[in-house]
Amino acid sequence: MAMLFADESGDWNDQDFIALAGLTSSEAGWEALCQEWPILLQKHEIPVVHMKEIMPERGKSPAASWKMDKKLAMIEEFIGVIKKYMQYGFGIALDAKYYREQVSIVEKAAKEMGIKTKPFQPQIFCVARLLRRFIDHLKESRIYAQRADGRNPFSLIFDENEAYAMKCYSFICKLRHRDSFIKESIASVSFANDYFFYPLQAADILAYATQNELRKGDKAWDESNVYTRFFDEVDPAYGNRYYSEAWGEQDSEALTKAMVAEMVTQEQNSPKKPREIIIPVL
Question: Considering the entire predicted model, what is its pTM?
């Protein structure tokens, strides 16, 4: 069964631009990553990789006080391990402030047509998009066996940070109530201590990189920096296994359509055709 280790970047409650990322690998890939990861931790004398504790000067990590070039050199080594063993990565970034503004527009248009909406919080929208990306990947890749009902069951693993875990699980529950296809594709949802689960530390780096790059819009991943290392692999078998979506004002039409799909339309497995909603151009 496929496993997706996922993490958000930063504190979703305090940011207007949020990101969520996840990565998957084979059983052998996870095992190999878990053998190399602690070697790097010991080499750099840090107990765990938490980007939000490493990058700020006042972070709690022993590496927080390092000069930036030393920090980036260390992160580059960890990214090298991720690239070796990650089969696929997925990243979702969202201009949450703009999203909240668009929610009111979609709700108003739907109300005028007598259609009930189920508005998603920005965080739930990111979770929904991440899972849809992952489910589409499972269908297309055919790496894992598909059930007779057309579903590819998978397991989700998140960081067990108490405040985050409770909110994250509530997002998953709300999404399950909204979309039965996703509900029946999720075989399990679990939370683990990233101190012991190294793939969650890898997801932390990918989430941080996703937010750092996708907020640049069209210039994402263009500039040479430590995070673009995910794509500079010489071996063509690597470097192109990251699927991302960046949602914001520059993609307002696509974002609106995606919001309507999540908030308004019938579920994927419903035989009913959803009514079209006309969103006024501002």
Answer: 0.85
